[in-house]
Amino acid sequence: MLTEKPRIPLLEVFLYGLWPGFMKIFLYRLRGYRIGKGVSIGFGSVICGERVEVGDGASIGFLTIIRGTEIRLGAYVHIGSTTFLDTPYIDIGEGSNINEQVFVGGLQFPDSRIVVGRNCSIMQMSFINPARSIVIGDDCVIGGHCLIFTHSSSLNLFEGYAAEFAPIEIGNRVGLAWRSFVLPGTTIGDGTMVGANSVVSGKIPPSSLAVGFPARIVGRPPVFPKPVSDEEKVEMFRKIVKEMADFLIASGFACKQDGPSYEVCEPKRRWRTARQWRLQVNEADVPNALKELGVRRPDVFLSLSEIATDVRDFLDARNIMWIDIASKAQSRRSNPLGEEVLSYFRRYGVRTLRYPRT
What we know:
Blueprint: H1 10-17, H2 21-30, E1 34-35, E2 40-41, E3 46-48, E4 51-54, E5 59-60, E6 65-67, E7 70-73, E8 78-79, E9 84-86, E10 89-92, E11 97-98, E12 103-104, E13 113-116, E14 121-122, E15 127-129, E16 134-136, E17 141-142, E18 147-149, E19 168-170, E20 175-176, E21 181-182, E22 187-188, E23 193-194, E24 199-200, E25 203-204, E26 209-212, E27 215-219, H3 230-250, E28 254-258, E29 261-265, E30 276-282, H4 286-291, E31 300-303, H5 309-317, E32 321-324, E33 329-331, H6 336-346, E34 353-355
Parallel strand pairs: 1-4, 2-5, 3-6, 4-7, 5-8, 6-9, 7-10, 8-11, 9-12, 10-13, 11-14, 12-15, 13-16, 14-17, 15-18, 16-19, 17-20, 18-21, 19-22, 20-23, 21-24, 22-25, 23-26, 30-31, 31-32, 33-34
Antiparallel strand pairs: 26-27, 28-29, 29-30, 32-33
């Protein structure tokens, strides 16, 4: 066939994939790829494209193939191992995460593309076919084993069977529960949740809950999403922080509370001194919380309420990582304790973007 290409680009794997990550990045830069600082590319993984841009801090696991004409991976994008992305235009926004064994590819047209917004998560074993355009907004979650197809052709069109090719648009803050199937031509509005094992087609309105086979609307504002008062938010915040402290202790860390602060110490090891971190938790007024910083500067400042720009600058100047739950933002500075805090809050659907955005 004139247009057929090998499923696995073996030549690229042998020429680039087997090199150590730092050598691979050096060779890709010589090739004209724009690759930022702190990028990690695992063993056996390759990027094959004509125009390639990889942002700072991005990471790619081992044995992953990324192939296209134009490829852009934003800053701090993470792509898991044994994942396959193959379509002419690939654009993954800053802070997004694609887990292991995700497949993006299949039938292609010149306008085939996948665009994933900032701060999204696509779980393992999902299969996405961008024969036509697929656009996924910011802060979305695609559950595991999900199917997103822009075509539905299988039997002969000339014998009366349907053959549909149509783009898919998924808005911001959309959640697809595990094993959801999105059909060609579907549009899902902002803030919508799709239940597990649902088959979605047509237009789903914003801020709704859709479940079933086929999916139908069972929840709308103001009942869904459920309104949350400020008092309830504080209780939720306290509960998550307490759970997180218990989790750290169960994982072998020492975690001692001192008012709004937590001292976290890693398990002792014979060959090195145990590292310690300090977390300061703020539920309400940020300026008052800053007065309590005291002599012992925290490594992480976690706030339920919004952190103003001047306060963010104040913390940045003192090398303190901050996490703003209200604004879903975090500092560009990071440390192991801060990453652990972010990972725990992601269990409850709280995902943050680094500030300022690139």
